[in-house]
Amino acid sequence: MPAKLVAGLSDAVRHAYQESTGQSFDTLFERLRAAPYVMLPKAFAPGHLPSTPQNFIPVPDADGTLIARVSAVIALGELGMETVSYGAENDGELFVNLVVIPGEGRIADKSKGGMRGHTDAVTFPFRGQLDVSNPDIAPSPDFVCLSGLRNPDSVRTTIMPMSEVLANLSVEHLDELKKQQFHIRSQKTFIPGMNLILGNEHGIDEGEILLDVGQETWVRYSHSSILVNEEEQPAAAEANSAFAAACHRHSRSVVVEPGDILLVNNRLALHGRSDVGGEPGGESRWILRTYGLDTTGLTKGQRYSKPAYMLFP
Questions:
Q1: How far is C-alpha 154 from the chain's CA centre?
Q2: What are the C-alpha distances in Å from 34 to residues 56, 214, 253?
Q3: 250, 160 in Cβ contact below 8 A?
């Protein structure tokens, strides 16, 4: 189990860091938790890998995928995060393959194309809040973890830090984005599971895009999931357009190479990617994705008993 793995190795990791740098791990911890993203280059040696899978699940068992998964769990654990999944997405698997999917249709096309900026599990509540329709729905993840296995064409992952985006918005636009007035639809990968578990697609009728939490402003957003009526809510629609434009202006990119781990703060940044293209299988692009969440405040109903890492829905 991820939690037991972290508990067994955490002290060794912290001791090794402090021995090699002479710096306090606690200072590093606070800085990384507040960063929009953390790139850990060459965090693991990929080792032997089979051909790239051609679907989200399952992750093949191999030396390379095992070390990648263990490294991701430890990296998230050192940020105070438990590695988690959601039962409604990809059958609740803890890790999924981000790969080119063969065939035709929306899923296959999307796997080859670029992705605009978004946060994951966009309709789930911010940590510290409860969903108004069902208090058992767990919070969205704090971090999205991407572990590189293959990237022969150097496909770029894009990141939009909120510190830069929000600094370029007017006070009026920020105020609108913090009002509970936006309709938010679920992202496509969650909908089949939600229909099965909840009986319907989970959405938010009146939600905010931005939320002030302490000294930070958290975000939940997906270009394709935010709906606002321009005629009835002109100020909200204008703020939404300004936000999308600011995200485009302040997009930076990194390449997740084999052995790299990229941790994207799902509260303080949006993420996406450039076009993938290419053919499925073989030596094509292969990234493992999982989630990290500070689970200290979870209620009993927000977590499945078996497996314990899987959150509701």
A1: 20
A2: 30, 12, 19
A3: yes
Domain boundaries, the chain: 2-311
What is the spatial distance between Cα 162 and Cα 8, in angstroms, rounded to a whole number? 34
Q: 208: which residues sit within 8 A by CB, 6+ positions away?
A: 177, 178, 179, 180, 181, 182
pTM for the predicted model, two decimal places: 0.93
88/149 Cα distance (integer angstroms): 25
Helix (H, G, I), strand (E, B) or coil at 108: helix
Backbone angles phi, psi at 47, to 5 degrees: 65, -160
Class of CATH domain 2-311: alpha beta
3-class state of residue 85 by DSSP: strand
| Digit-coded pLDDT (tens) for 210-244 | 999 999 999 999 988 999 999 999 999 999 999 99
The tally of CA atoms less than 13 A away on the side-chain side of residue 295 is 24
- φ/ψ of 159, rounded to 5, equals -135, 135
Q: Residue 306 in contact with residue 159, Cβ under 8 Å?
A: no
**Residue 134 CA to chain centroid, in angstroms?**
22
Backbone φ and ψ of 146, nearest 5°: -115, 120
Residue 294's φ and ψ, nearest 5 degrees, are -75, 105
